[in-house]
Write a structure and sequence with these properties.
The protein contains 3 helices and 6 strands, in the order H-E-H-E-E-E-E-H-E. By secondary structure, it is α+β, with helices and mostly antiparallel strands. It folds into 2 domains: 52 residues; 147 residues. The N and C termini lie far apart (74 Å). The relative contact order is 0.13.
Amino acid sequence: MTANLRHIALAGGILALFALIGTGLVALTHEATDERIAANQRAATLETLHELIPESRYDNDPVRDAITVTAPQALGSKHPLTVYRARRNGEPVAAVLTVVAPDGYGGPIRLLVAIDHDGTLAGVRVVNHSETPGLGDAIEIERSDWIEDFAGRSLGNPPREDWRVEKDGGVFDQFTGATITPRAVVAAVRRALIYFEEHRRELFARGESAEEP
């Protein structure tokens, strides 16, 4: 092998080594980034759960004590949705259901609906939406206190037939110029309450997943 060929072979080997190292570093960076994203998502979920159900009410980890359920008609999505379960001394305290209002003005509205074991709403929070800024985004707790009106409500308060916005003959406020958004959220929360009432036992049973019968 001539000197030139040896130099070419050596250079090629060095380039291949750097490429291998670079690929490994990219993979490690990607893995670390995924872990950070997962950790941030878990922290954000915990923060919202603590807003809905004070930590003093339970002694388990609701994020770890979670199941997935598939209930398209009741919860608004054909995909499995997470239910976080809060317990104290092993006894059920509350469940936080991931719920989708599929008929928002700007598209699906993703919610967390916290329901005490007795069927009373502990609270509702919006997780994700595409509603109109300055109008429909009033469903966000940061924008208005409208969403807080759900706390303490149940299927008997108000009666089921009154679970509508005022424009439709119900008791819930609508927004000026944006009735579709609150209408969608109210209907989604009502469906979640009915689902909880019908599946309370299964939701708190030990397990990993459940499907709508």
